[in-house]
Design a protein that fits this description.
The complex is a heterodimer of chains A (299) and B (295).
Chain A lengths: L6 E5 L13 H12 L5 H14 L19 E7 L4 E7 L5 H11 L4 E3 H10 L10 H15 L13 H8 L11 E6 L5 E7 L9 E2 L9 E3 L3 E7 L1 H7 L1 H8 L5 H14 L4 E7 L4 E5 L6 E3 L1
Parallel strand pairs in A: 3-4
Antiparallel strand pairs in A: 1-5, 1-12, 2-3, 2-6, 5-6, 8-9, 9-10, 10-11
Chain B lengths: L5 E9 L7 H15 L4 H14 L19 E7 L4 E7 L5 H11 L4 E3 H10 L10 H16 L9 H11 L5 E6 L5 E7 L9 E2 L9 E4 L2 E7 L1 H7 L1 H8 L5 H14 L4 E7 L4 E5 L3 E8 L2
Parallel strand pairs in B: 3-4
Antiparallel strand pairs in B: 1-5, 1-12, 2-3, 2-6, 5-6, 8-9, 9-10, 10-11
Helix pairs in contact in B: 1-2, 2-3, 8-9
Classes of the chains: A alpha+beta (299), B alpha+beta (295).
Chain lengths: 299, 295
């Protein structure tokens, strides 16, 4: 078998291409790759890349995460390796780098997934300081969306989110979702070890506590001996289909790109908009989408 | 094809000191009977799981085991053959977590609500505050806490390897679940659990995760119990229902239990396939099941 090559691939979500791309967004993806390449093994590489994207306000992860119906940020993140080591957090609040908390779950606990206040408490015990990831732009957008909902408009033109208004008054007794900019990274290191990281703020005006596909092993994040995959798109659908696991399983018999294409075609047939990046055990990268647009960058 | 209305329930698997008991069996039988009173498959699994959630010997709702901090954090998931999903994780102080999972499925755009958000949602849906802790569980919690103290490890996050050792000693995988097919040939699955003893607050296992401890697709539905982390990283639920595409239920479950064992994961699994065949298998020492139906 040929020696695996060191590979790193990142994505910044999928969806409709915005009319105007914010300046610096593409550069951020490129810089995330060069930052990630400094990692000495696969898990370091994906964590470094994801941390960089979490810090970038262009993406819906860490700083720049979208807000819940209540105007808070609740983040989801997961890491996994080809040795089936895994760590994930769901609905974590008040941290700067959810992906690093996920890695701490993997390395310092007997568990794979911590959620809610428990996840935040764990982060504090593990030494992650308090941090507010809400940006001015996101707060402003939240106000606009809430106002639009109150006026009887739709917060989203997206067919997936139709019940938001019915919850508005119940949660707020006192929205845009077009583009989903979850971030993800997959890597293969020189020893052929694979790793994946996915980090997200979820969706605009989600009900508090909502967790999507990103932190769910086999949903939006999966790695095994055949490959590693990070997904983005319609979270509930990706979760239902187990899309990352589906794509990894296909890599048992198919090269990376073919496996990802087949997985996104399957998602399309099921009415689920999705984008995938992956790497197989030989270090071959791939990306595939059934959405209009998915910005990626690779080494 | 004529459909047969039937249901199978489980109340955990393991190698605990108690082993299978008559009491456990009678509650499982009662739960299966209760499930048969439901019309739709979703009603059936919910009714059956309600009985098990109410009974204090099982690790679900009333009788759920306690976290490191002495609280109950409940996980539940409901899934149907046509891809509808509702799940809650880290839900607190609620009598019927499976009912909240069903409300997530029927009333929201989401599949999974966790933590404080899940509890808040339960209250908004009209489910009152309820303390699921039983005196028996509180006693055990106090003992475990003492053991921890004597072990001089203290409530610190660096010593969790020890805790998994206790879990093995106690051998308590008493998650509950049900798979059912209704008279119209529709099928569904429900799983409910309190998780594991002395889990870190916020820990979520396989039960509420679609594709892990609970899974359904057009080929079949399964509910699992066992070492949650292992079930999760192998996506065993998905593995089992995918096998049902070409294998009958029992064969698919046997193959899944074998695959789990190969990876050192102790678990139990029940299922129903699209032809209404029920099955159960495990890679633990024992697993008790209840079934009912018009066979």
């Amino acid at each position: 078998m040929p020696t695996p090559r060191k590979t790193l691939l990142v994505h910044g979500g999928c969806g409709r291409r915005p009319a105007v791309l914010p300046e610096g967004r593409d550069e951020a993806l490129a810089r995330a790759v060069s930052e990630g390449l400094r990692g000495k093994n696969a898990i370091d590489m994906v964590e470094r890349a994801a941390r960089f994207l979490e810090d970038s306000p262009f993406f819906n992860a860490g700083t720049g995460s979208v807000l819940t119906l209540e105007g808070q940020v609740e983040m989801d993140a997961a890491v996994m390796t080809s040795e089936l080591e895994a760590g994930a957090v769901g609905g974590i609040t008040g941290v700067r780098h959810p992906i690093s908390v996920a890695r701490a779950v993997m390395e310092e606990t007997d568990h794979h997934l911590l959620v809610g206040e428990g996840a935040t408490k764990f982060a504090r015990h593990a030494g992650f300081p308090v941090y507010d990831p809400r940006t001015t732009a996101r707060r402003k957008r939240w106000k606009e969306l809430i106002a639009r909902l109150r006026d009887g408009g739709e917060a989203s033109e997206d067919r997936y989110w139709k019940r938001t208004r019915s919850w508005l008054e119940r949660y707020l007794s006192r929205d845009e979702r077009g583009h989903r900019s979850t971030v993800g990274a997959v890597a293969c290191d020189a020893k052929g070890r694979l790793a994946v990281a996915t980090s997200t703020g979820g969706i605009w005006l989600k009900l508090p506590g909502r967790v999507g596909d990103s932190p769910v092993l086999g949903g939006g994040t999966y790695a095994c001996e055949y490959g590693a995959v990070s997904a983005t798109g319609f979270g509930e659908g990706i979760l239902r289909l187990g899309l990352a696991k589906f794509a990894c399983d296909l890599m048992k018999s198919l090269p990376c790109q073919k496996a990802l294409d087949r997985a996104t075609a399957f998602a399309r047939r099921e009415g689920v908009e999705a984008g995938l990046i992956g790497v197989d055990k030989r270090g071959r990268p791939g990306s595939s989408r059934n959405a209009e647009w998915m910005p990626t960058n690779q080494s | 094809m004529s459909s047969t209305k039937s249901i199978i329930v489980h109340g955990g698997a393991g190698r605990g000191p108690t082993g299978p008991t008559g009491e456990r069996q009678s509650v499982l039988d009662r739960a299966a009977q209760a499930g048969m009173r439901g019309r739709s498959a979703v009603d059936m699994v919910e009714l059956a799981v309600n009985v098990l959630e109410d009974h204090p010997i099982f690790d679900a709702a009333t009788g759920a085991v306690l976290t490191m901090e002495g609280d109950c954090e409940l996980d539940a998931c409901l899934m149907t053959d046509d891809g509808r999903i509702g799940a809650v994780a880290g839900l607190r102080r609620t009598q019927y977590p499976i009912a909240i999972a069903r409300a997530v499925m029927e009333k929201t755009d989401h599949h999974l609500l966790v933590g404080k958000g899940a509890t808040r949602f339960a209250r908004i849906m009209g489910h009152p505050d309820y303390d699921p802790r039983t005196p028996e569980r509180v006693t055990v919690w106090n003992q475990l806490k003492e053991e921890l103290r004597r072990g001089k490890t203290g409530p610190d996050f660096r010593f969790w390897k020890r805790i998994s050792k206790w879990q093995k000693a106690y051998g308590l995988f008493d998650t509950v679940g049900a798979c059912a097919m209704d008279a119209k040939g529709r099928f569904a699955v429900a799983t409910s659990t309190g998780g594991i003893w002395m889990k870190l607050p916020g820990r979520v296992g396989d039960s509420p995760i679609p594709g892990a401890g609970t899974c359904a697709n057009r080929y079949g539905a399964i509910s699992m119990t066992g070492h949650g982390e292992g079930v999760m990283r192998l996506c065993l639920g998905r593995h089992a229902v995918d096998l049902m595409k070409r294998l009958p239920c029992q064969a698919a479950l046997d193959a899944t239990a074998k695959y789990a064992l190969k990876h050192g994961v102790e678990c139990g699994i029940i299922g129903v396939d699209a032809k209404g065949r029920l099955g159960g298998a495990h890679s633990a020492k024992w697993m008790q099941l209840g079934t009912a139906g018009v066979f």
